[in-house]
Structures are given as structure tokens and as C-alpha cells.
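User: Please fill in residues for this 359-position structure.
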């Protein structure tokens, strides 16, 4: 398929979903096709890890429900702090929620409840075993959310007052955000993680995307990286890495069909191989079950599993042979003696494999 030979920079121009285009730009700018699966046990560790590894990654994947001490406050809690780190370093947040239920239930789980995933996670994912309508339900929820944000931003009287998004300055942030949120039509608690965007909110694809985060006075690590568009995206869980996975070829094909039916919301897949096959497919693929052999050991494509069903392939095999775009790495990085330098090792390997695929 053509996307296997296209550069990420080219795909940043052609992908159907605005957030996917943004993600490809991040990948090109940071020379990274690495997603960290931040499966640590406490919110404090999660934020520290995100800040340290942020420069090497383009996506940070979370499982909010395995984190203890997750602070659900929409303005100052863990989600908002992650969102600030995402802006600082230039990465997207992917809550690996694997929604699977009837449409109405997943809408509520996505937008409401304790975690209010839609407010802080740019991306989430779904297992479509319950049927394709669930994808439409999530898409509708995302559209409604975007309309609401648009409305709230328009009615915000404090437009032009950027809020500090330094997470170590949470008192000032809380005050500023409380002021701002109270100003918005009495809808307390509904602005959440996008307060810093209010000054420049316009529909996706507007020229503001060229204004660098750096110019806005934040200590961005990668100058030239602009704010993410206010869109939400879904990945379909099309194939899994685990031994004995019951997802059939028909199920995977149903994911491909659902993706094509919802190009404005589905960014792509969590899969074990590239699934683009129609000429105009522009989906992105992210692949977990990825590990490098320890430094010094020879790489032969596979690495021993974890004894609990997880199976591992190396970055080069996944990217060059299986054709994935982004490798998702958890314990390979987290359990290393120095996670930031191990993340750099994965980033370099992943990028080299991508360049090799183009050649
Ligand atoms: O097929 C899959 C899909 C996912 S999202 N296999 C997976 O392992 N995952 C997730 O990726 C899993 O839930 C975990 O968060 C991560 C892999 O972690 P690792 O420590 O094995 O790299």
C-alpha cells in the first residue's frame, strides 16, 4: 500500500483526520514514532515519567484505571496536568480504554463519570465486538463535545488570558482557571484542560497551527510544535499482541470497514500489521507487544514474552516487515534502569526502521 512508502511528512498532508495530520507532523519534527505505554502505579510516577520521557515520544498511552492517586479534578487533576505536559513536549495522550458496550453506555463512559476521558485524552480506543454502531456513538459524543467547547470558548470573557500550564505551579493555575471557569456561563468545571487554548481557538486547520508553542512563551522542548487541534480521535483495536487472541480475520475486516465509515473520527488502528488496503486509506497504525533485546544482544525479530500471554516483536520487525507506523512500548522502557535514555534507544531504533522502510 502507498502509505508504507510515504514519508510521515507527506502523510501529514494527506491523512483524513486532523489529529492524525498533526500527529504525523509531530513524528516528522521529533523524528519519533514511539508511544510510551505509561503503565506505572501512581499518578506521581506517571507525571514524572511523562515529563522525563516527553522529548522522545509522540504519544503517551495511559490506563487511568491502574493508576492510584489519580486526581479527577478537571481543572487541576491528573488529566489536566498530563494535558499541560503534552503541550509542553508535543505529544498526544491516548487513553487505552478499549471501550466495548452498547452505544449509549460507551458515550457516557467516554464523556462523563469519574475520569471524563474525552476532556484530557486526545485519543482513545474501542474493541468493536459489540458492533459498529458503537463507533458512531463515540463519534457523536466527540462531535457534541467539540461543539460545546467551541461554544464555551466563544462565550468566555477571558479570551486572551492564557493560563499557566506549568504543572508545578498549580496554585496559580487553579486560581486562574477558577476565575476563567466561573466566567463561562456558570458552567463550572466544564472547560477543563483546554483553558490555554481559549486565546487561539479556531476550527482545526486554521493558520494558527503555524504559530509555534514556543512563541507563546511556554518552555516548549521542541520549538515549532504548535498546539494540537481541538479534535478527538479513535483507534480501533483490530488485532492484539497476546497469545491465543480470539480476534478473527472477519473481526479485523469489520474494523477496517468501520474505520472507513467514520474517517472524521477514526484515526486508525491498534493492530499487529498495516491494514490500509484501499487506495484512499490514510489510517495510522500503532502496535504494542514491542521490545528490544538487552543492549549487546543480537536482534532477530522476536523477544521472549512476559509469561502472561504478552508476545513481543522488535521495532524493526514491526515497522519494516509488519508495516506499522508507531511502536507502543511499556515495560521495555519503564523497567529499564534509566527510562529516558532507554526511550531514546527505542526512538532511534524505531526511526531507523522507518527510514529503512522508505529506502
Ligand atoms: O494488543 C494489544 C493492545 C494493547 S493496547 N496488546 C497490548 O499489550 N496492549 C497494551 O499495550 C497493554 O494494555 C499495555 O498497556 C501495553 C503493552 O505493555 P508492555 O509492557 O507489554 O510493553
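Assistant: Residues filled in for all 359 positions:
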Amino acid at each position: 500500500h502507498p502509505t508504507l512508502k510515504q514519508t510521515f511528512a507527506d502523510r501529514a498532508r494527506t491523512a483524513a483526520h486532523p489529529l492524525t495530520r498533526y500527529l504525523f507532523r509531530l513524528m516528522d519534527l521529533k523524528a519519533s514514532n514511539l508511544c510510551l505505554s505509561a503503565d506505572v502505579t501512581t499518578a506521581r510516577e506517571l507525571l514524572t515519567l511523562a515529563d522525563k520521557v516527553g522529548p522522545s515520544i509522540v504519544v503517551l498511552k495511559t490506563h487511568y484505571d491502574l493508576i492510584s492517586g489519580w486526581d479527577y479534578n478537571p481543572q487541576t487533576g491528573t488529566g489536566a496536568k498530563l494535558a499541560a505536559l503534552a503541550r509542553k513536549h508535543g505529544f498526544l495522550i491516548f487513553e487505552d480504554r478499549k471501550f466495548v458496550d452498547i452505544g449509549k453506555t460507551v458515550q457516557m463512559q467516554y464523556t462523563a463519570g469519574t475520569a471524563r476521558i474525552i476532556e484530557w485524552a486526545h485519543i482513545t480506543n474501542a474493541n468493536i465486538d459489540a458492533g459498529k454502531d458503537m463507533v458512531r456513538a463515540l463519534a457523536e459524543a466527540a462531535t457534541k463535545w467539540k461543539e460545546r467547547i467551541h461554544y464555551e470558548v466563544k462565550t468566555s470573557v477571558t479570551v486572551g488570558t492564557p493560563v499557566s500550564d506549568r504543572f508545578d505551579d498549580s496554585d496559580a493555575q487553579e486560581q486562574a482557571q477558577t476565575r476563567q471557569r466561573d466566567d463561562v456561563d456558570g458552567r463550572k468545571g466544564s472547560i477543563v484542560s483546554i483553558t490555554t487554548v481559549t486565546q487561539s481557538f479556531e476550527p482545526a486547520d486554521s493558520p494558527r497551527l503555524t504559530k509555534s508553542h514556543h512563541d507563546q512563551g511556554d518552555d516548549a522542548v521542541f520549538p515549532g510544535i504548535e498546539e494540537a487541534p481541538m479534535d478527538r480521535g479513535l483507534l480501533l483495536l483490530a488485532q492484539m499482541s497476546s497469545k491465543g487472541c480470539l480476534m478473527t480475520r472477519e473481526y479485523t475486516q469489520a474494523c477496517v470497514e468501520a474505520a472507513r465509515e467514520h474517517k472524521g473520527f477514526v484515526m486508525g488502528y491498534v493492530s499487529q500489521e498495516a491494514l490500509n488496503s484501499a487506495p484512499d486509506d490514510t489510517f495510522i497504525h500503532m502496535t504494542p507487544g514491542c521490545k528490544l533485546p538487552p543492549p549487546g544482544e543480537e536482534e532477530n525479530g522476536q523477544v521472549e514474552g512476559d509469561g502472561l500471554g504478552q508476545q513481543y516483536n522488535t521495532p524493526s520487525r514491526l515497522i519494516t516487515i509488519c508495516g506499522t507506523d508507531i511502536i507502543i512500548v511499556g515495560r521495555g522502557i519503564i523497567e529499564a534502569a534509566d527510562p529516558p535514555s532507554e526511550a531514546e534507544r527505542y526512538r532511534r531504533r524505531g526511526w531507523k526502521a522507518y527510514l529503512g522502510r522508505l529506502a
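For context: The radius of gyration is 19 Å.
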